[in-house]
Structures are given as C-alpha cells and as structure tokens.
Design goal:
Number of domains: 4
Oligomer: single chain
Radius of gyration: 24 Å
Strand content: 25-35%
Helix content: 25-40%
Structural class: alpha/beta
Length: 523
C-alpha cells in the first residue's frame, strides 16, 4: 500500500486510537529490526509490548520517539499523520519515554537532569527554586524519592531509573512509553509503579509498556502485542490469555518457568568475607557495616534486599571497583582485600555487573572484542604480544551460538548497536565461559526474556554443580526464592538474616528486607 493510501486509510474505530504505527519497517546493517509492524494504542489504555531480546520492541518505540527514522510506514496521532523527526518533535506531540538505557548526564545533578531541555528561565536566568518545587511535588505525589542535589554518577541504578521517570512526568506528557521500567526496581517499587500507571490511565493518559515480566503484563495491561524476530505475531486482550500462552507466542515454544535443580552439595570455602566495612560516597555513614559470610564450592548464595541497602557498594568492594575501610576478603585462601581487578580475575573471579554499560562492556568495541576483554592475554588469543584475530573470531562465534546472542553483524557488531538483553547475554557468556572459581552475578537476568532467563538460570546451576561458588545479588523475588541454596538479607549495610529458601516465605523475607526483623547470623 502506498504511503499516501495509508495516510488516508479509514480503519475501524480510528477515533479511539491515540497513536497508530502503521506498517513500520526499520532496517540496520545485516538485520530488519522491524518488519512491517502495525501497532495501535487506544486512548486511556495500558498496552504491553512483549518479545524476546532483539525482537524489535525498543527499536519500534525509538521510532515513535523520533530516535530512529523508519524506511517504510507512517505514524498517526489522534488520527492525523505526524512527522517525528527527533525527540523534540515527540515532546511537542506530548510523547514521553522512559528509556531502558538511561539518557542521563552523569556529572549533572538529579534536578539538572530532570529539567534539562525544558528549563524555566526569567530574563535569561535559570529559576531553580521554582523547578525544584515542581520536581519535589512530583516526587512526593508518585512516591519516587530522590535527592535533587546528588550527582547521577554517585547514585544507584534504581535511583537513576526514578530520575528517568520523573523526567517524563515533569514534561506533562499524554503518551507515555515505558521501556523495561521495572528492570532495576525492587518489588515494592514495582508495585508502586504499577499503581502509578493505573493512575495515569485513570487520568486519560495512554501507555505503551515494554516488559519481559509476564506477571507485570498480566497485572497492569489491557492489551498485549507480541513481536518475534522483528515480526508482528499478534495482539490479544490480556484478560483473555494466560502467562503460558504469552510466553509461547513470544519464544515459539513452551518455557520452563521453575528452576529445576538438585540439592546443593557444598564443599570447601572459596570466598570468606570478614568484618568488611565500606564507606559511603554520598553521606557520612558507612554504606556497608561489618559484613561477614562465606560462600562454598557447589552452592549459590543470594544477597537479597531492597535496592539501596549497601549491596552495590559491597559488590564494588568485593570485585575491586571500590576500596574497603576495614575488614578482610579472602578468595581461594588468598587475601584479595586490596588486590587489583586483574589479580582477582586471574584468581578465578567472574563478575556479571549491575550496570552493564558502565562496568560490563566497552560500547564502542565490537562484540568479539568485548567477549575477550579479560582474556586477550591468554596464549589462546595472542602470541608474542600480537592478538590472534582468527582465534578471537572463532571464540566469539562459539559463544554467540551457545548463548544465542543476536546481533545484526555477528562478531563485528558494535556493542552499542545491540539490544539491552543481548548485551546482557554477551556479558553472561563471557563471565561464565571463563571457568571461574567464584561467580559474582548481580542481576544476571535483568532485561532478559523468559526464554533467556530459563537458559541463564540453567547455566548458573550448571556452574554450581561443576563446583563453582556462586554469589548472586538479585532484586527479583521469584529469582531470590527459586535459584539460590542460601539467602542472606542485607538491610542498611548489614546482614540481618540468613535463610533456606525452602523454609522461608516471601512475607517473612519481606519483614527482614524492610528492617522490621533481624537475627544473629552465623557464619
């Protein structure tokens, strides 16, 4: 159909649609990210967009927000064809987007990031008192607590997510795009966000909601559109479908939702943490206070807690990204308290980081370069200081196949050009394939679809069964209850409880995570 015909085409109930994306095709080198996709968003509805990693969801939303221009197709708002050439056009059309990968200036404050581009001025002077009042009112109204004067580089990933949401709220948008907004939120924060979205809907706003979490889609959305490998699969009313049907539409097969594993058979201690204290970068109190525990070969220990209770700072100290002020960290019998990151890696520590962009990848390097970042000195990949690019390519192709890492140009694809889920798969593949003694996995399934989560969980269990010590940090209650053999709860920088996941309830765990209960934790 010609573009002019599309523009004039009368569709049933056309007046009910706030946004129509008709026959959208978007291509990148080596891949058709969106292949003739039509998506129609009704006024006052929450419309979920579901698909595997690399299915084209974020690309489609980036087209709507003006970050990409499609090769084919048109966009209509309120029944009229519109041109969205850039995000400024989208903002003028009252379209807002919470991005999966944050669009924040790290050296700016929280307040500066929220108002950036829509600053209030008087006689050329920035009126910060007025904007601060509006931002704090929004923060209070929607339960998104922030420190407006903190720098982005000093706050957690979860706090950065709140800033992204407040940026959109500050602009009074009518069409709200949430691209994986709950990936870094705690269960309590997710519940709050779901309620916020329902309130938006009640106010007449229209929401496009990208999520891999089927339970969230079932809980909050009215309709769900499924994409697979860049193609439109179908749109269903959420009330008329099930989690199993949606997962099958998404990946094209049935998915095992429950982690299947034998009981752990832990042996000798790999990691011993003794009285570790880590100072805070944003306040005078310590972020981590006198933490002690052990992780043995053949077990998965989960460090659980509400985001912002010291897990990030502890992991940074454990992996060498930050220093401890007191205490001792021993790995495989060696004191690594003050060891370099390379030394820890050489001893057998693998780290799947919380922030994949900041600590997991060099975004302007190719996929194959990222896959050998810590191993290019190995004899397998170099000789006399010269890298064997053929060996690197062969190794990358092996991991791409094994972990189903999808990218437009295979090993030579720039990491920045890959979807978030496939970036995460690349990091997981690299860290697990190193054959570690200790695997530190922080939010390892963040942003992954159910099929990929199933596979990563199996890989982590396989590492445990191979005799690897696994330290898991997760904010996903399902993952916390399902994957580990032991759970340690961290609250305000201290370990306040230790549990067997088979013997504790979510409610009991929640009391410890909220600080309402604590116990003396034995090593």
């Amino acid at each position: 159909m010609a573009e002019s015909d599309l523009a004039n085409a009368k569709l049933p109930d056309q007046e009910d649609y706030a946004i129509e994306m008709l026959n959208i095709t978007k291509k990148f080198p080596g891949i058709i990210a969106n292949d003739n996709i039509t998506l129609q968003l009704k006024r006052g509805e929450i419309h979920a967009l579901l698909g595997e990693n690399g299915a084209g969801k974020s690309t489609l939303m980036s087209v709507l927000f003006g970050l990409y221009q499609p090769e084919e197709g048109i966009i209509k708002k309120d029944g009229k064809v519109v041109q969205v050439r850039n995000p400024n056009d989208a903002t003028a059309l009252h379209i807002g987007m919470v991005h999966q990968h944050f669009k924040l200036v790290e050296c700016f404050t929280v307040l500066d990031n929220i108002i950036l581009g829509v600053e209030t001025t008087k006689m050329g002077v920035l009126q910060k008192a007025e904007t601060r009042k509006k931002v704090m009112a929004l923060s209070e109204k929607y339960g998104l607590r922030i420190d407006p004067d903190a720098k982005i580089e000093d706050i957690s990933v979860g706090m950065q997510q709140r800033v992204e949401i407040l940026k959109m709220l500050y602009r009074d948008n009518e069409i709200l795009i949430f691209d994986e907004p709950t990936a870094v939120l705690t269960p309590q924060e997710i519940d709050e966000l779901m309620e916020i979205m329902r309130n938006f809907k009640a106010e007449g706003k229209s929401i496009l909601f990208i999520s891999h979490k089927l339970s969230e889609i079932m809980a909050v959305s009215d309709r769900c559109t499924v994409l697979r490998k860049g193609k439109y699969i179908g749109t269903v009313n959420t009330c008329d479908t099930t989690v199993e049907e949606l997962s099958s539409m998404m990946v094209g097969r049935s998915v095992q939702m429950k982690v299947e594993k034998e009981d752990a058979k832990p042996t000798d201690v790999v990691l011993e943490v003794e009285g570790v204290t880590v100072p805070s970068k944003i306040h005078k109190n310590n972020a981590v206070q006198n933490v002690s525990f052990k992780v043995r070969r053949g077990e998965i220990v989960c460090l659980a807690g509400i985001e912002g209770n010291g897990q990030t700072q502890f992991i940074h100290a454990l992996t060498g990204l930050d220093s401890v002020s007191s205490g001792k960290i021993t790995m495989c019998g060696q004191d690594i308290t003050h060891a370099s990151i390379r030394k820890r890696s050489e001893l057998g520590m693998s780290h799947i980081p919380e922030d994949r962009h900041k600590h997991g990848l060099i975004l302007d390097f190719s996929l194959e370069q990222n896959l050998v970042l810590q191993r290019f000195r190995d004899p397998e990949f170099q000789k006399a200081g010269f890298i064997n690019f053929g060996a690197v390519r062969k190794y990358a192709e092996k991991l791409i196949d094994k972990f189903d890492i999808r990218s437009g140009q295979g090993p030579i694809t720039t990491a920045r050009a890959m979807s978030g889920g496939n970036q995460q798969k690349a990091i997981v593949a690299r860290e697990i394939d190193k054959g570690p003694e200790l695997l530190v996995a922080v939010q390892p399934t963040r942003g992954l679809d159910v099929g990929a989560i199933e596979y990563i969980h199996k890989q982590i269990v396989a590492e445990r069964d191979r005799g690897v010590a696994v330290l898991l940090v997760s904010l996903e209650l399902d993952e916390v209850m399902d994957l580990p053999d032991r759970i340690l709860v961290m609250y305000e920088g201290e370990i306040v409880g230790e549990f067997d996941p088979k013997q504790v309830t979510v409610e009991e765990l929640g009391l410890y995570m909220a600080g309402a209960k604590r116990m003396e934790v034995a090593e």
